[in-house]
DNA sequence: CCGGTGCCTGCAAAGGTTTGCAGCGAAGTT
DNA sequence: AACTTCGCTGCAAACCTTTGCAGGCACCGG
């Protein structure tokens, strides 16, 4: 069928092992022989068969990348960065979409295990115990989840949620709704934990709405609930939900930011393009993708690495947040200057 | 290391070939034996090594999927659909991002060739000759490009561009700008061809601006050029450019659709969420992804299939298009009824 | 001239699986 | 009773590489 090491050996008059060494250990072969072999290989268009190589070396030069939903705009930048970084190291990437289903996650990891050097699981929905078990079957790096003993890169959404809620209380909001994310999401729990604590510290009331699917629709459908709860500000699990929510609020007759302030999380490209432009917590997705790949590739080198990499997040204030009914902080342009405002 | 067919054979007291047959040709093995083998396999957690299998059968159960830019919102729905369809047939998907670079396309196809059953190239940027050559090295299906002898699924953007331009001339626009896409894009040429012809038939003048990178920025930066050309309507190569253009127009003091009408192509999710909502030509991306995978998988079965599948497109009229300075068609609500309007 | 050293190359096993062929026992045929 | 047929299983080669080991050769020092 295609050209093998054998053909090259025949063409250049050497043994197949010499051809093999020409590619995998060039310093072991005579420069003269080497160049002849390379010339023949070039001419025949020889490419080593990685599957055959993997069979004996155990290294596949492939990586598995598992995400909950490729169509969720949060993931593509991460996938792109990971793919680019992987290819820089001569690795290829399998991408699998689990449709937010933990059972599919497990199945896919197992199915991929034999043909990759490791798997990257982004925002997993399965429980920690299962992840720990899987990490015994194949090197794993997890994005957006912290588990002792499992290498991970996490975006510091707790910090982000804190900044977001502080922003809202500073603007004078005292009744805040939190649109939580999908069941099983570590990120969602982190946000909730941090937002709750921050709200309490800011003397605001925070009510949780959810769990919801992390999509536009997930936000759209709960607009009524948010209004009924009397919230004047909302922190959403992600930008997509925030944008959907804004649509829903408009339909219900509420205006953003005049009646309700909305903050998202992720800073997907979309958020700069909607009107009003979304105030949101920017997460470094591309950096996370790169870092996760690096971590996975380093994984094999030394002993089982177990590092947790934390990436900072940042509040980006745009047009979807405005003053609330309560006292505003001094810094706020149109606000009333009230001493004893919320500390930052 | 991991559990092999050998371990299962030992555990169940049969020869490895019997184990192999239990999985790949169950009807050849005694039901009693079979169930015993299956039980052992289950207990040991055996999974066939696909690389080893591929070595001998030549089928890898992998597919390569090559796109110009994962972060371009046009692609994720296609990738998602392709991945889902592939996994339905027990195949896994390699995804590669070429950054719009034809050289990378070639390199990636070659690198992937040995470890996939076929490659799907979406909106390729390389020239036809190269594609033809590559298709001799590995089964290929091309999306959004027509080449004789190469199986393809194409969205009928020519039809879409015609509908779009007719829509604009019907609204009374007589000076239309076309933002063309990246160099090497078949789609861009098709659009240009069809738009030019349709404009001529509608007695409108069409000026081409470009080529441009197919991104938000690609549209943003040419806003001035569009205004300088005196265009009252624009058809953009894709939605992303259209949205960027609208931003640019606003910055330059022109309003959409009051001063300039804008039509995009693709109907990405984003287009429903911007304000004004974008009038655009909807392309069936998910269907294309599914169809392309099906075509690739069918490819091997019979002789070299060479079918070209055409998918219909559809004009979705939203809020970014309005009346132009010329006479409007009767159907237009606020328009002036002028006989002799453009035929559809 | 001999032993030693070092560079390069060939040999063959190994990795996990599939598959054509042959063998075996039991059942069926004549 | 001999022979065929059939269903099932084992054997071994093959797929393409990598790699430890050993052999060949030239060169060096003594």
Describe the protein:
The structure is a homodimer of 344-residue chains. With 344 residues, chain A is an alpha/beta fold. Chain A is 42% helix and 16% strand. Chain A is built from 13 helices and 12 strands. In chain A, strand 3, helix 7 and strand 4 (140-143) form a beta-alpha-beta unit. The termini of chain A are far apart. The model of chain A is unreliable at 332-344 (pLDDT under 50). Chains A and B meet through helix 4, helix 5, strand 2 and helix 6 of A and helix 4, helix 5, strand 2 and helix 6 of B. The structure holds a DNA duplex (30 and 30 nucleotides).
Comma- or semicolon-separated keywords:
LacI family DNA-binding transcriptional regulator (chains A, B); homodimer; disordered C terminus; alpha/beta; 13 helices; 344 residues; six-stranded parallel sheet; LacI/GalR-like_sensor (chains A, B); DNA-binding; Lambda_DNA-bd_dom_sf (chains A, B); 12 strands; HTH_LacI (chains A, B); 42% helix
Silhouette of chain A: elongated
Q: Which percent range describes the beta-strand content of chain A?
A: 15-25%
Oligomeric composition of the shown chains? homodimer
Give, in order, the helices and strands of chain A.
HHHHEHEHEHEEHEHEHHEHEEHEE
Rg of chain A is 26 Å
Largest beta sheet: strand ordering of chain A = 2-1-3-4-5-11
> Count of DSSP E strands of chain A?
12
Largest sheet of chain A: 6 strands, parallel
Indicate the percent of residues in helices of chain A: 40-55%
InterPro entries (chains A, B): HTH_LacI (IPR000843), LacI/GalR-like_sensor (IPR046335), Lambda_DNA-bd_dom_sf (IPR010982), Peripla_BP_I (IPR028082)
Region (Disordered) (chains A, B): 318-344
Organism (chains A, B): Paractinoplanes rhizophilus
Pfam family, one (chains A, B): LacI
């Amino acid at each position: 069928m295609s050209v093998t090491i054998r053909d090259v050996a025949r063409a250049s008059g050497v043994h197949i092992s010499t051809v093999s060494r020409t590619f995998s250990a060039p310093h072991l072969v005579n420069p003269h022989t080497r160049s002849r072999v390379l010339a023949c290989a070039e001419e025949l268009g020889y490419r080593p068969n990685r599957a055959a190589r993997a069979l004996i070396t155990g290294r596949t030069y492939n990586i598995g990348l598992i995400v909950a939903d490729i169509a969720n705009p949060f993931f593509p930048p991460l996938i792109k960065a990971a793919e680019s970084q992987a290819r820089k190291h001569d690795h290829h990437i399998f991408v699998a979409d689990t449709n937010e289903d933990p059972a599919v996650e497990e199945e896919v990891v197992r199915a991929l295990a034999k043909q990759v050097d490791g798997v990257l699981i982004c925002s997993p929905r399965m429980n920690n115990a299962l992840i720990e078990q899987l990490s015994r079957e194949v090197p794993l790096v997890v994005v957006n989840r912290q588990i002792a003993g499992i290498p991970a890169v996490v975006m510091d959404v707790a910090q982000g949620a804190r900044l977001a809620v502080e922003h809202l209380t500073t603007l004078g909001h005292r009744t805040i709704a939190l649109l939580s994310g999908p069941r099983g999401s570590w990120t969602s729990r982190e946000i909730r934990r941090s937002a709750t604590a921050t709200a309490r510290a800011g003397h605001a009331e925070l009510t949780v709405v959810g769990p919801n699917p992390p999509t536009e629709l997930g936000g759209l459908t709960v607009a009524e609930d948010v209004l009924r709860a009397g919230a004047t500000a909302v922190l959403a699990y992600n930008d997509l939900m925030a944008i959907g929510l804004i649509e829903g609020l408009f339909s219900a007759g509420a205006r953003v930011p005049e009646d309700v302030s909305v903050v998202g999380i992720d800073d997907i490209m979309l958020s700069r393009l909607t009107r009003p432009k979304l105030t949101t917590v920017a997460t470094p997705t591309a950096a996370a993708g790169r870092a996760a790949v690096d971590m996975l590739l380093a994984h094999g080198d030394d002993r089982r690495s177990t590092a947790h990499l934390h990436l900072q997040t940042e509040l980006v204030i745009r047009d979807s947040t405005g003053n609330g009914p309560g006292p505003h902080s001094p810094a706020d342009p149109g606000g009333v200057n009230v001493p004893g405002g919320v500390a930052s």
